[in-house]
Design a protein that fits this description.
It comes from Afipia carboxidovorans (strain ATCC 49405 / DSM 1227 / KCTC 32145 / OM5) (Oligotropha carboxidovorans). The protein is mostly helical. It has helices at about 5-25, 30-50. The protein has one domain (about 5-50). The protein contains 2 helices and no strands.
Length: about 70
């Protein structure tokens, strides 16, 4: 995934988690508030930590040599 797309997705995810964290705090859901904060940070961290899968072309093994 290109760097600028990954960066934009990270920013949108962080903003969404921050808004949800604030809203859950306003209605008194403290446990859910911290769960949202953890999941938001985990999603951003995991996107940068784990590389994208890239498949390499392998020779076709089904062809029989004559």
């Amino acid at each position: 995934m290109p760097f600028h797309i990954k960066l934009m997705i990270s920013i949108v995810t962080a903003i969404t988690a921050a808004v949800a964290f604030y809203m859950q705090g306003q209605i008194g859901h403290v446990r859910e508030q911290y769960l949202i904060a953890f999941l938001g940070l985990f999603m951003v961290f995991a996107m940068w930590l784990f590389p994208e899968v890239k498949r390499e072309e392998r020779p076709n093994r089904n062809k029989q040599s004559a």
